Amino acid sequence: MTATELDPRLPCIVGTARRTWHPGDEPAPEPLAMWAEVARSAAADARSTRDPLPSIDYLGVVHCQSWAYDHPADHLAASLGLGPGERQVSVLAGTAPQRLIDDAAVRMLRGEISAAIVVGAEAFATEKQFRKAGETPPWSHPHPSPPQFPVDLDEWYLPTEMAHGVLPAWLTFALLGQARWAERGATAADRQAFADLMGQLNAVAGANPDAWFRQPYRPAELTTATADNRMVAFPYTKRTTAFMDVDMAAANLLVTKGVADDWGIPDEHRVYLRGWGFARDEIHIAARAELGSSPAMRRATSSALAAAGLQVDDVDVFDLYSCFGSAVQFAQDALGLDALDPRPITVTGGLPYHGGPSSNYLSHSTSHLVDHLRSHPDQIALATGIGMHMTKHVAAVWANRPGPLLRAHDDGDQHWNAPESAEARAVLDHHDGEARMVAASVVHAPDGTPDHAIAVCEVDDGARCYATSRDADVIAAISEDRWPEMTATISAGPTVNELHIGPKDLDSSRAS
Fold first, then answer.
1. 436: how many CB neighbours lie within 10 A of its CB?
2. What is the spatial distance between Cα 209 and Cα 368, in angstroms, rounded to a whole number?
3. Reduced 3-state DSSP string for 437-471
4. Which residue among 79, 320, 463, 472 is the one 20 to 30 A from 332 at the CA level?
């Protein structure tokens, strides 16, 4: 099929822009001004024979967590001087930038729109300075009644998860990573692979002028707890945890092939969306039939590749969502990538080192991939994104060369509206008796000292529950990687399940 035979509605990115306001630079403006700046820069980057902004008929704004606006998309449209068109504001999710791109692409293929800008920004670092001074940022158009939490807690968390404190991402991703490690044999080699993986991300960030943290570290310096690298939730240290307190913005301008032709966009400046996929795992960690892997991630990535008519071996470069190491490892497993695969796993640097601007990291990684593919026109790229607690998954295939775009499987709306699958495990509020730990971590206090252990436990009928302990022996067994072969005993308290490990298990594990 020649280029002239291709569907003129095929979507492609023709303009991209991103900016980081580093500490010591000029103060970052409010997010609305950041959106406007990178949107204009993305339009200028298109190298069009005309101003792209008057032709924009779709504006997608990624959820902003650092400041709640009353009508964010309308204010941005007015700032940019956009005419009438579709306006979308995403939910809070690391999948949001790609879901907005997907939505725009679907509308393009239907002939409903022809040019879209997807933009996001966070000013957490600046907002934090105001907060430290006891001040509210003097930013515009505040929401009259902003929600206390960016998500519906009753929708996303079971009462037993709330009671056991299974809420923060640094804990849930640690538990998922621990489940994967245990399922794979609980080996020291896997621990080293995790350290090496974080080292790869750190090295890429060190060469990226947009990154928030560019200091190079050896893998062991990232994963070993020290006075200046405290443990957060075992095995995640501060240097292996996503960092949100950044000032960053990014925008991508997506148009149809026909518009790109009309605007005189050079072929080498276009990056085509060749395929995408979206899928969801169960909401609740303990309910997942597969705790150490993600069926939805496999579905999203395979759908994206199938839509492009490609195989994973055709991909030259990846940007795998990297809030925590387990996110990257789950993606490698889903794609069938060996830890020693020589292909890049990121061109951006990862959320712990590049910085994780809440829901908008994927806008930055997409922007970096656009620049990479413009410089490597024969390559194929695949990007992934994750929402909530390894719950929502997106994947997108990008290439400088156009090709047919098939519609792939898509789980639909970003909100949770799917029933639990038949394979979902029952999650017990309370349990008394023996159980097997299938995931375990130790939560540390802000000073780095161990605070309590938390485990996902499985009983004989396959049901699961959460259990916690402040016992020093239990904490040590988990921190020293001795827990996978142990039998746990759980006693149900009034609000939480207490985790115990028998003396025989502790003695035998110490001896081994």
1. 16
2. 11
3. EEEEEEEECCCCCEEEEEEEEECCCCCEEEEEECC
4. 463
Report how far residue 200's alpha carbon sits from residue 124's, in angstroms, rounded to the nearest whole number.
26
Q: Which residue has the tokens 């009309």?
A: 262
400-434 in b/e form (b: 16+ CB < 10 A) is: bebbebeebebbeebebeeeeeeebbebbeebeee
Q: Nearest to residue 241, comparing CAs of 441, 87, 48?
A: 441
* Helices vs. strands in the chain: H and E counts, helices first: 15, 17
Report the SS3 class of residue 392. Answer: strand
Per-residue pLDDT band for 153 (boundaries 50, 70, 90) equals confident
- Which domains, ranges and CATH numbers included, belong to the chain? 3-135+244-399 (3.40.47.10), 427-511 (2.40.50.840)
**Residue 402 Ramachandran class (φ > 0 left, ψ -120 to 50 alpha, else beta):** beta
Q: Is the pLDDT of residue 289 over 50?
A: yes
pLDDT of 452 strictly over 70: yes
CA distance 166 to 172: 7
CB neighbour list of residue 108: distance below 8 Å, 6 or more residues apart:
9, 10, 11, 114, 116, 254, 256
Within 184-294, residue ranges assigned H as helices are 188-206, 219-223, 257-262
CA 405 to the chain's CA centroid = 25
222-231 long-range Cβ contacts below 8 angstroms, 24+ apart: 222/195, 222/198, 223/191, 223/194, 223/195, 223/198, 225/448, 227/448, 230/444, 230/446, 230/447, 230/448, 231/442, 231/444, 231/448, 231/450
Whether 194 contacts 330, CB under 8 Å? no
| Paired residues of 313 in beta bridges | none
